[in-house]
Amino acid sequence: MASERPAHPLLPFVVRVRRRRREMPDIVSLELEPARPSLWPGFAPGQFTMLYAPGVGEIPVSISGDPADAGRIVQTIRDVGAVSRVLAALQPGDPLGLRGPYGQPWPVDDARGQDVVLIAGGLGLAPLRPAILHLLRARAAYGRLLLLYGARSPADILFRKQLERWRGRFDMYVDVTVDHAGTGWRGPVGTVTKLIEQANFAADVSHAFVCGPEIMMRYSARALQDRGVDPARIYLSMERNMQCAIGQCGHCQLGPEFICKDGPVLSLARLRPRLGRREL
Amino acid sequence: MSTESLRHILAQHPYFEGLDDAHLDLLTGCAKNLRFEQDVYLFHEGEEANDFYLVRHGSIGIEVDVRQQPLTVNSVGPGEVLGWSWLVPPHRWGFHARALELTRALALDGACLRRKCEADTDFASELLKRFAHDIEKRLYRAWLQIADVYGK
Predict the structure, then answer these.
(1) For residue B73, which residues of chain A lie inside 8 Å, CB to CB?
(2) Is any Cβ of chain A less than 8 angstroms from the Cβ of B71?
(3) Shortest Cα distance, chain B CAs vs residue A180, angstroms
(4) What is the pLDDT of residue B82?
C-alpha cells in the first residue's frame, strides 16, 4: 500500500531492530522490522537503503537478507564511522529510521540460462548474498553457479557457516581465498583474481556479478575479460558518497551516472571509461 | 616412475604447453616424481635451492616467519610452479614451503636444467618465457595483497 509510505522521498520511516547478530568484532547484521509491514515494499537483490541513526546521521547500507522473505529487512554494517558505529551498537527493540529500497539491482533475470560467476571481496559478500539466495531458489533456471570469495584472513571470512553450507551443495561451486593465513588454513592463499583464472565456467555464456573494494573489482573485471567474459555481462556494485539516494544531490555522481539511482549495480561496459580514474 | 610417464606428465602440464619434443626430452632428463604428506616441508628459507616443483595434485603454501610465527602468504596448486630461486645465484630459498594437503609434484633439478640451458639457448628462452610470465602474474597479485584491499 503505497499510501502508507512517507509522503516525501527524503523522509525515513521508523523501523525497530528485531535481531542483532555479530558477524565479526566490527561487523553486525541487523534484522529490522517496520512499524507496519505495508511500509516496506520488499527489495530486489543488490538494492540498498538509507539508515538513519537518530540525531547522528544517515548512511547507505546494502541489504544482505533474502529477497523472498518480505517481512524481514536484514542489513550488514561495518563499524567504520560515526553513524555506522551507532547503528552497529543498536540492540533488539531500538528504533532507527529507514528510507528505501533504492538503486538498480543485480540483473538476475538477464542471467537466466547462463553460468553465473559471483565474485566477492571482504564485506562485498553482503550485497551479493540476496542474489545468491535468489539464484539458489531458482536454481534450475541457471547454468553453473560459482561463488569466488576473497578475504583478508580466515578470521575475516564473512557468513562463514553459510559459505560452508553452500560449499556442501552439489549444484554450486564455492572457493575462498585469503591474503594471508596461519598454519591451520588448508585453502588457497592469494588474490581472488587467481580463482577467476582457474574457475570452470563458460565465459561466452556467463554473467559475472562483482562486489568488493573498488581495486579488487577492477582487477577482477580485468581477469574476467581475460577469460573472455563480455564487459556488457560483467556487473559491479559501486560505492560512492550517497546522500539523497534519489539522484538529486549529485554527491555520488560518477561521470554521467548517479550511483544511487543508475547504480549501485552497473555494467563494466558502462563504467569502463571512468573506472580506476583518479579523482572520480 | 618410467621416463615415458614423466615425459607424458610434463607434456600434459599447463606450464609446459606448446613445448616441442626435443625440449620436453631435455626437461624429462632432469625430472623426478615426488609425493609430500600434509604439513611436510619441501624446503626452508635459506636452504640451497636445487629444484623447482610442478604441482600435479594438492597444494603447497609459501610461508614466511613473522614474529617467530609462520604466516602463509601464497599457495600454489595443480598446474602451477613453485620456485624460481634455482634460476638466479646464490640459489637459496627465500621462504619456506609446506604441503597444505597431500601433494604430488614433479621436481626438476635446477643444476641439471641450468647446464642444459647454457648448452641450448632456445631451450633457455622457452623456459625463461614461461617463468617471466608467471613472475609477472604473481607480482600483480602480490601488489594487490600488499595493498590490503579488504582493510577498513
Answers:
(1) 179-180, 189
(2) yes
(3) 5
(4) 95
Element (H, E) at B11: helix B3-12
| Interface check B2 vs A, CB under 8 A | no
pLDDT digits (tens, 9 = 90+) for B25-76: 999 999 999 999 999 999 999 999 999 999 999 999 999 999 989 999 999 9
Give the closest-approach CA distance of B50 to chain A in angstroms: 25
Cell representation of residue A253: 555522481
CA A64, CA A43: separation in Å to the nearest integer? 11
Count of CB atoms situated within 10 Å of the CB of A131: 26
Q: Do A150 and B150 touch (CB under 8 A)?
A: yes
Q: Does residue B149 belong to the interface with chain A, where contact is any CB pair within 8 Å?
A: yes
Q: The whole model's pTM is what?
A: 0.91
Backbone angles phi, psi at A131, to 5 degrees: -65, -40
3-state secondary structure of B143: helix
Q: With beta carbons less than 8 A apart as the criterion, state whether A147 and A132 touch.
A: yes
Considering CB atoms only, which of A78, A185, A198 is closest to B72?
Answer: A185
Please confirm whether the linkage preceding B90 is cis (ω < 30° from 0): yes
User: Which chain B residue has the Cα nearest residue A152?
Assistant: B150
pLDDT at A93 exceeding the cut of 90: yes
Asked if the ipTM is above 0.90, the reply is: no
Confidence of residue A1 (pLDDT cuts 50, 70, 90): very low
State which residue of chain B sits closest to A123, comparing Cα positions: B150
* Partner A, chain B 39-68, Cβ-Cβ below 8 Å: 39, 59, 61-63
Q: Residue B108 CB: number of other CB atoms within 10 A?
A: 23
CA B59 and chain centroid, separation: 12
- DSSP annotation of A203: G
Q: Is the separation of the CB atoms in A117 and A208 below 8 Å?
A: yes
Burial of A22 (0-12, 13-18, 19+ CB in 10 A): exposed
Give the burial class of A34: count Cβ atoms within 10 A of its Cβ; 0-12 exposed, 13-18 middle, 19 or more buried.
Answer: middle
CA distance A106 to A66: 14
Round to whole Å and give the CA distance between A257 and A247.
9
**And the C-alpha cell for B92?**
637459496
Which residue of chain B is at minimal alpha-carbon distance from A27? B152
